Amino acid sequence: MPFLPGFDARWKNVPDYILGITKDIWEDRGIHTLHQYYGPELVVRSPASVIKGNTGIIAATEATLAEFPDRQLLGEDVIWGATGDDSFLSSHRLYCTATHDGPGVYGAPTGRKLAYRILADCWCRDNGVYDEWLVRDQGAIVRQMGLDVVDWTRELIAREGGPDVCVKPLTPATDMPGPYKGTGNDNPWGQALADILTQIAKAEFSVIPQSYDRAAELAYPGHVLGAGWSDADQFWMQLHAAFPNAQFSIDHQIGMEEPLCGARAAVRWSLHGTHSGWGMFGAPTGVEVFIMGITHAEFGRHGLRREWTLIDETAIWKQILLATGNL
């Protein structure tokens, strides 16, 4: 008996399905199962690109496994909500390990060991994924390869054929519509996280000591780990200071509670505006930038006790470099 009509009886529940197909595709080398698990017109949006259809996804999967053949994707959490008509939206968090043992976009094999996270929202029905938003911690990968993020991004543009033909990052202009039109559920924990992020975006940084546990565990882009109010303040201040007049939007929010798991939330958000301030991305350039971010959080007796936030620094630098011509 399937956990939801249209899904294979093999899967016990939503987390089992999401983490199971991930293992099938990547670790068990079932790349061909993408034809089964991914809808033929699936749109996968990452900050670095927008891909539609299985052909590009299969090619990208093969290239990644050729470069990192021992890659593991360890499922830390799946936060999800029903979306009607026997469908659901899941937001899963992966802790990835890999060894750079093959040639690829990071150059000749180095044998370097990597660890980084991925956060991804997937809309699923009929035993397949039909819409996806994914943020990979590219900054962590590049730095652990011993490379400079800006220099690597500049070289990537050249490898892709130069500014006119290179792969363009996700922006409202490059995005493609997909079948999922929802904005999440009305669970109070999803709303709590959305409210915190919105207040921070409005420069109400006092919300951090008001809403975070004083000993909150934090995981930020670049595989940076932190703890407590000061580290949370520093990350969010550095980001918003770089784009002080940007429009912040909550694009999707889910909250849920489960036995033995506590209260959790997943929020996908965006920041769209001009790089007009000093902060995370150096001297202001006046470039229009679009950022897609995903945040996961756990709540406890003293507020937000764990946070995981990802943006793709390389996609932001790519927008800046392409617009300024600093290549």
UniProtKB/TrEMBL annotation:
It comes from the Bacteria. GO terms for biological process: polyketide metabolic process. InterPro entries: Cyclase_SnoaL-like (IPR009959), NTF2-like_dom_sf (IPR032710). It holds the Pfam family SnoaL. This is Ester cyclase. It comes from Marivita cryptomonadis.
